[in-house]
Amino acid sequence: MSTVYIEWKDILQVSSKALYIIELEDGTRLEGRLAETDTTSQLLLQGKAQEQLIDMTRIVWIDPLKLDANRIKRWDGSVSAGFDSSKANSDTSLSASFDARRRAEDFQLNFSGSIYSRSQDGAEDNLRANFGTVYRGLLEDRWYWAALGSLERNDELGIDLRTLGGGGYGRFLVQTGRSLWSVTGGLAVVNEQRAGDEAAETNLEAILNTDYEFFTYDTPKTTLTTSLTVFPSLTDSGRVRADLEFALRRELISDLFVELSLYDSYDSRPPVDGTENDYGIVTSLGYTF
Hints:
Elements: E1 16-24, E2 29-35, E3 42-46, E4 51-55, E5 59-64, E6 76-86, E7 91-103, E8 107-120, E9 123-138, E10 143-154, E11 159-175, E12 179-194, E13 201-216, E14 222-232, E15 240-253, E16 256-267, E17 277-288
Antiparallel strand pairs: 1-2, 1-5, 2-3, 3-4, 6-7, 6-17, 7-8, 8-9, 9-10, 10-11, 11-12, 12-13, 13-14, 14-15, 15-16, 16-17
């Protein structure tokens, strides 16, 4: 089964004889059984040495400790697609994206990918594609270490293939039942295969990232996500790249959603055949699993 998302205000009591690990807003992790209690809106956690009442609204994640075959099925994700066409100039745009996420006791793993293609009479076809993964090893007090990698193509910026691999260290500044806000800093090695006759380049870049998510689980579910990543080059002095992403997702019926997303990629020193900015707005329909 995948993750179950709930609004604590709709829950009065929870009890179970199984062992669970619970994470609170401040990053504290506790283990124990969910004992029966007469109080409402609180969990009675029965640990090895003591019992304690915990306000449900302080809990951001809960998972059984028992290892079983179902753990490998605990992935969440979505797929989406969009299409737009204009008869006047035969302008056609296609988009598709996916994401998959796994949260466990001591790590988070994310995979994502997107493709955006545009064709128009009298102009060259344009392709933007990105596939990436981020692994976060969860530490105490909401800190984490991160490893990341990505493959990217962007015709507008003059990039045939950009390969990135790196790592860093970060923290969840805000972690509640409604929102997540994280910041990450690190280093990455980046190889670029450029359009035209330009030679390939390999550079070392710093990574400065912040992600923010706001979500509601009442029907219809709504999710707002923003991400800003800046890459100052350490070997190509003065060059700075940046990626900004924004998405607003609204549930239509169970598991089916409509999404409005915006992207902007910037390069202060693009290849000869590229431009400094590539930006756009995409609307799509999708399905969550």
